[in-house]
Design goal:
Chain lengths: 228, 228
């Protein structure tokens, strides 16, 4: 956010930022939630990491602004964005700036195929969502809020399928749940939970391989990517 | 919103508005959802009804601004407000104003005890939420969005209890559901649904009166007013 370019104490400035999550394997090979951040190159919080975003242009809709600044700063173009929340506490710059900025924040999930940062720069990087440094403004709180929304949505939507191929094993689905929730789940309980919700169905195929009893493949019962 | 007082084509203006619902008996004696509106006294949309709200002051938090303008315009002071959504389409004034306004909208429910408009004016009135006139800006859409959120929340939260006394009959609870959902519900199915969710429990008392078989009284199993 280039909030230092237009200082004003008269009216709050409006910015639009985006929290994006993907799942990637960590050093132990387990999936873990990651989010891209952009290093600020001007005051306030110069040199600190922040969510991708920028000031709202007068001729841009909110979601258009989110997509636009996201593309410009990270190269990411998620298939959908959803509005998360407007953050506007008077003290969210923590005294680092006299300017009042209200941020309307979007969030998105991207699958492995979409998660390439087209911007190759030391100022744009993926971070593990639960191991963030101290971010600019109240952006740590914003990521926490987005994590809460994601975890909540996991319970009552098909959101996990954004991270999976069209056909997947229950073990793969459970791995996504474990990565998002940040804790291990009992395989038996997980199988019963999934079967009781009716969100997946057997494809009739099994995972190709050399195992004696290859695991069954499943698919989501409604379109993957739906989040409402 | 006094958006005509400070015109700018440089940066969007930020306003905070609030949708409040209450339940009141209509002419047939059935409960119906009502929302308070304020008549605009300046351009654009002069003379048309609009949601209570106003421009965000630089020294006010978002929820504080919502409470403050709500109190000033309607006299209402709901026990809690929750952020609904930020509305910011470029064309939301429909050509009636050159100024771009982004509205961060809050919503609230008020019980009968809180629903008195302290401002006695022909420019502040309650309307039935499903019989609104053409409102200023995109405020009809905003009320529709708030209705959707309310109806959705009814399904998985204790929100109905905001409209009830501490002890209530299942018929009274069903009347609230019917008013919010805008359709009649089968009493037997409703009873089974409520019993299966465990959101209410018997108080051990019955409704005082002269009937031979007075109906049982229930209470919410967690604090009324909780909405998450």
């Amino acid at each position: 956010m280039s909030i230092a370019t237009a200082r004003s104490t008269e009216t709050p400035t409006l910015a639009v930022s985006t929290v994006i999550f993907t799942l990637r394997p960590n050093d132990s090979g387990a999936l873990q939630l990651a989010t891209p951040l952009v290093r600020r190159i001007r005051a306030p919080f110069e040199g600190q990491w922040a969510l991708p975003g920028g000031p709202l242009q007068v001729n841009e809709d909110l979601a258009t602004s989110a997509s636009h600044t996201l593309r410009d700063t990270t190269g990411l173009e998620p298939r959908y964005l959803e509005q998360l929340y407007a953050f506007g506490s008077v003290d969210r710059a923590g005294g680092a700036s006299a300017e009042r900025v209200v941020s309307i924040v979007y969030w998105a999930l991207v699958g492995a195929d979409e998660a390439e940062l087209a911007i190759d720069s030391e100022n744009v990087q993926w971070f593990w969502a639960d191991e963030l440094p101290r971010l600019a403004f109240d952006h740590n709180q914003i990521v926490e809020y987005a994590l809460g929304r994601l975890r909540n949505k996991l319970e009552y939507s098909r959101i996990a399928h954004v991270f999976l191929s069209e056909a997947f094993t229950l073990a793969q689905l459970r791995e996504v749940y474990e990565a998002v929730l940040g804790r291990e789940l009992d395989p038996g309980n997980f199988r019963r939970m999934v079967e009781s919700t009716g969100t997946v169905e057997e494809t009739g195929e099994v995972l190709a391989g050399t195992r004696h009893r290859p695991p069954k493949l499943y698919r989501a019962t409604i379109q993957a990517g739906e989040t409402k």
